[in-house]
Amino acid sequence: MFKKFFVAVILGLLVMSSQIVSAADIDWNSAPRINSKAQLATYIEEGRLKGQTKFYFTFPSVKINNEQERKDFQGELVKYIATAPSAKLDVDGGFGTGRYIYTIYQEYLGARVANAYLSRNQQQAWMNLTPEEQKLYNIAVGIVYEANKRSSEIEKARYIHDFICDSVYEYKNENNRNETAIGALIDHYAQCGGYSDAFYMLGRMAGFKVRSVGGKFGDGWHFWNTITLSDGRSYCIDVTMDDGYNTDEWFLANFEVMKRHHSCDWSVIPNLQ
Prior knowledge:
It is a single chain. The chain has helices at about 1-25, 35-50, 65-80, 110-115, 120-125, 130-145, 155-165, 180-185, 190-205, 240-245, 255-260, and strands at about 55-60, 85-90, 100-105, 210-215, 220-230, 235, 260-265. It is an alpha+beta fold. The radius of gyration is 19 Å and the shape is globular. The N and C termini lie far apart (about 55 Å). Mean pLDDT is about 85; it is low at about 1-20.
């Protein structure tokens, strides 16, 4: 036990030291200047599409002055703007500087698979996945192949939505796999995180611009997706609730439909109808 703890401490120190070095090398004069949460959400999502895990930016209108404010803003990032299982926000140069480093330590499995599929070197990217991620990749390729046979983008999105609904037989709170696309498409047991991770993965692989969104359904914490169609308009898709209530009420749902039961920081969703 002590040996494992010692190794963990050493690894933690190595990670911390690497972060310090990388932070010192940042040219803050050329760092992206963020003016809104919507802009920050877009900046982080565009980086995640390329496999980026570390983001540095200035946010002049957000001045964090103490540790509690840092935790609060980090909570907003993880919940509403850049959903990830494990991430951290650091303040560079001390509180009040408006300079931030956001690091994703663990990505959702669906994002990893989608990044591999969309990589320029697809074969090498596939080799870098774990055996179970490779299994998920192969399943996803088959689903996307069928989706792409549809004649319109709405029919394509509906095929993906319906396939996920048909694949998840019931909810079981057994382990963290339920919060991933592996839970939804391999185990066939998923919580809302697994549903949204699966749609995020398949939607991106099918050529859509999609995001995962954190918020609330009623009083409970919840995840769903947004999708931006070719006309630039964005809608919400909540596969979890459509499956649970046996409906399609939340397929391409606009703001009027969403606000009845859902709540989140709506400003982070671009051009929501």
